[in-house]
Write a structure and sequence with these properties.
Bound molecules: pimeloyl-AMP, magnesium ion
Mean pLDDT: 93
Radius of gyration: 18 Å
Low-confidence stretches: 1-11
Order of helices and strands: EEHEEEHHEEHHEEEEHE
Number of helices: 6
Number of domains: 2
Length: 273
């Protein structure tokens, strides 16, 4: 997206907008997406998200809710994008073994790893099915720390900077549809910007999307092309935190509602993707 606003995107009095879209059919979630962009793009981006909701692979929604919030530039914070690399596993079994090994090396206990893997495998929602947000798990004791185990922690108010998005597009040109990878990398970069989070494990709940990742400030975003078998409708996210360093009140608030723009200052972050 060009920055032809006559203002530098890192400040200069520019205001921003958060645009969030959520589409449902018969009350069931169909798709959701969000952007954080200079206010002059509010209408353009709203159109893009509505169009996206209408063409979603899992069918046309009967309700699209668009939420547009103004975000003053003083409120916007910046965090670096995580470096991304792919570990070319050939099966879900091999992928999970590699992901578990990485989690161990990041200091996540066996107990915490197996409770997260188990929840993601069978649907992390205690009432059945998937959660809307992520589980928050004590990396040592393996206990769930968030209040609402059904919803979890939903990371929001995050996007690439306009310059970062342009650079991302150049780096991934010709690689097919990388939108899921991009959105996951952006979310993971916000999560990893918190010192109390030691690791982030995820795979999609989309039955056709079998890739997943383990992300951390330490070592970046490591993607595994296979973390589950095709056809499985369960997935989720687990944020492993250091209970001493993670402030339940303040850090959840940051994840859910602090506006954060992810910067791409070093283009070599995509070299191994
Ligand atoms: N914040 C926290 N958790 C979320 C959020 C969010 N904003 N969005 C989704 N989740 C949780 C929720 O439990 C979903 O069920 C689960 O994550 C999976 O969401 O190729 O597409 O949108 O490198 O299906 C990862 C691999 C793709 C990308 C992840 O997740 C790659 C994906 P989905
Ligand atoms: Mg999904």
């Amino acid at each position: 997206m060009p920055t032809d606003t006559g203002q530098d995107s890192t400040g200069g009095g520019m205001s921003w907008v958060s645009v969030r879209m959520r589409a449902t059919r018969n009350g069931q979630h169909v798709s959701g997406a969000e952007r954080l962009v200079p206010a002059v793009y509010a209408v353009t981006v709203s159109n893009v998200l509505v169009e996206r909701a209408r063409r979603h692979a899992s069918g046309e929604p009967d309700r699209i809710v668009l939420t547009v919030d103004r975000v003053p530039h003083e409120a916007v914070r910046f965090a670096p994008i995580l470096a991304a690399r792919t570990v070319c596993v050939e099966s879900a079994t091999e992928g999970r073994r590699a992901a578990m090994e990485r989690l161990r090396s990041l200091g996540v206990s066996e107990k915490a790893i197996s409770s997260a893997m188990d929840a993601l495998t069978h649907g992390a929602n205690p009432f059945g099915g998937n959660m809307r947000g992520a589980m928050l798990i004590d990396r040592a004791m393996g206990e769930r720390l968030e209040r609402d185990h059904k919803r979890g922690v939903r990371v929001s108010f995050v996007d690439l900077t306009p310059e970062g998005r342009a650079r991302f597009d150049v780096c991934v040109r010709g690689r097919g549809d990388v939108s899921r990878f991009r959105d996951a990398l952006v979310l993971a970069s916000k999560v990893a910007s918190l010192p109390g989070v030691v690791a982030d494990l995820c795979w999609s709940d989309d039955p056709a999307y079998v890739a997943g990742y383990v992300a951390a400030r330490d070592g970046g975003y490591v993607r595994y092309p296979r973390l589950k078998e095709r056809g499985i409708p369960f997935g989720g996210r687990a944020y492993f935190v250091d209970a001493e360093a993670f402030d339940l009140e303040k850090d959840i608030e940051y994840l859910q509602s602090a506006p954060v723009l992810i910067e791409v200052n070093d283009p070599s972050v995509f070299n191994e993707f």
